[in-house]
Design goal:
The protein has 366 residues and is an alpha/beta fold. It is built from twelve helices and 17 strands. Among the domains are: 135 residues, NAD(P)-binding Rossmann-like Domain (Rossmann fold); 88 residues, no CATH class. Strands 8-7-13-14-15-12-16 form a seven-stranded mixed β-sheet. Strands 10-2-1-11-17 form a five-stranded parallel β-sheet, with helices on one face. The protein is globular, with a radius of gyration of 22 Å.
Length: 366
């Protein structure tokens, strides 16, 4: 059989593209996925204790895009969920992003207005110009002490680099607040899929024109597949057989534990900001789904450099290397490179969906 499109990868980029091509253009699509499941890193499942867990770390859906929210709503109902994060420093817990509550507790202050908090930031921040890296962007906003306590070691554990070696975008993703808002995100739409991500993906890929092959490296079968165009969402360096060298990624090793407690911690995510433990955070998965159960499952995250590619490393040398691959990719006319791994970009889920919908629109009009 001949397919109109061969799609490599069944994460957000591959699945959204497959669904649109099949449902909107009646295209025949084959999705080839090297893992034994669909949904990419958003994959969730019930563990042996009946707790719904996010196997590749917490995937919190948030977006300001009505278009993205309405699109995904075709495949799932939602439950409201606002993510809250606490940072553990010296055995005390503080809200992150840093806000007025954080400052009042940490420095034993009694700031009552946003203006007072703003004045405090102005009194401690160091002028950095130009902003060249992740240390600059934080010190320029909140000064050195808050940077050391909440950003430096956490970032170092996460990336195995000092913040000054990383692009401003890494720490710049985290806002600094003058109010008491303890939500991690402030987006208009903050929800979780009612039955989990896996059910959403199953619905997305259930079209009669979509065929899925799991547990398969596309390079081992590509000679046997007839297709017109390829959508590639895997690592771009792998596509080109690492001809310029391997792109660096950070990965995570998860340590899982189920406890005979209703809850282990005060919120879904607690960041461990100091160097005294090797893990970056503990996730308590029940909070994410609103599930009621007498036990609870937690995961500790240990960043490393040699597992599944999770996070592209945002610095100058890796961007330079990626640009070489990008140049090569532009020479190939019947392959579209899209998604976090193919574009070597630290996209959020909603950004991948938005980007893929845009790619589809371009395809549909050519």
């Amino acid at each position: 059989m001949k397919y109109d499109y061969l799609i490599i990868g069944a994460g957000f980029a591959g699945s959204v593209m497959a669904e649109r091509l099949a449902s909107q253009q009646n295209k025949k699509v084959l999705v080839v996925e090297k893992r034994n499941h669909i949904a990419g890193n958003a994959y969730d499942e019930y563990d042996e204790h009946g707790i719904l867990v996010h196997r590749y770390g917490p995937h919190i859906f948030h977006t300001n895009s009505k278009k993205v929210f309405e699109y995904l709503s075709l495949f799932t109902e939602w439950i409201p969920y606002e993510h809250k994060v606490l940072a553990k420093f010296n055995n005390e817990l503080y809200p992150i992003p840093i806000n007025r509550i954080t400052l009042n507790k940490l420095y034993n202050k009694n700031f009552k207005s946003e203006k007072e908090v703003e004045n405090f930031y102005n009194s401690v921040k160091e002028k950095r110009h130009p902003i060249l890296n992740s240390e600059d962007i934080i010190v320029n906003q909140v000064g050195h002490d808050l940077f050391e306590k909440f950003f430096r070691y956490y970032t170092k554990k996460q990336w195995e680099m000092e913040p000054r070696e990383l692009s401003p975008s890494v720490c710049g993703r985290i806002p600094v607040r003058t109010n008491d808002d303890c939500r991690y995100f402030t987006d208009k739409y903050q929800f979780m899929p009612k039955e989990g991500y896996i059910k959403m993906f199953e619905k997305m890929l259930s079209h009669k024109n979509i065929e899925i092959v799991l547990n398969t490296d596309y390079k081992k079968v590509i000679e046997d597949i007839k297709f017109d165009k390829m959508i590639y969402t895997g690592p771009i360096d792998y596509f080109f057989d690492y001809q310029f060298g391997k792109l660096p990624y950070r990965s995570i090793r998860f340590e899982w534990e189920t406890l005979d407690l209703e809850f282990y911690q005060e919120t879904a995510q607690v960041n461990y900001t100091g160097p005294e433990v090797a893990f970056t955070r503990i996730i308590e998965h029940k909070y994410l789904s609103g599930q009621k159960a007498i036990k609870t499952t937690i995961s500790k995250e240990y960043p490393n450099s040699n597992g599944e590619p999770f996070y592209p490393i945002p610095n100058v040398s890796s961007q330079t290397l990626y640009n070489q691959y990008k140049k090569e990719s532009e020479k190939i006319k019947n392959v579209i490179f899209t998604g976090r791994l193919a574009e070597y970009k630290y996209y959020n889920m909603d950004q991948v969906v938005a980007q893929t919908l845009n790619q589809f629109r371009k395809l549909a009009t050519t």
